[in-house]
Design a protein that fits this description.
95% helix
Length: 82
């Protein structure tokens, strides 16, 4: 019975150490590094898109205000012209 338990412990520790080495080699692989770079690019793209959205909303707000102001001026001129 002790032999079986010892064998199971040895196999368990062996598997754990093997997994750790595999994770280290995975982190050093080109595919892993490409994945990290792609993640950073995606984060940057998300921030850039959010900033562009804010700028577009601000531009749309200004355009709307300009439109309303011009419409108001046209109504006032029409009243004065009567």
């Amino acid at each position: 019975m002790r032999g079986v338990i010892t064998l199971l412990l040895i196999l368990t520790f062996s598997a754990c150490s093997h997994r750790g080495r595999r994770e280290d080699s995975d982190r050093n692989s080109a595919a892993f590094k490409v994945g990290e770079a792609a993640h950073e690019i995606a984060k940057h793209a998300e921030k850039t898109a959010a900033e562009a959205e804010r700028e577009l909303k601000e531009s749309a707000r200004r355009a709307s205000e300009g439109w309303k102001e011009k419409e108001k001026e046209d109504r006032e001129k029409a009243r004065e012209g009567r």
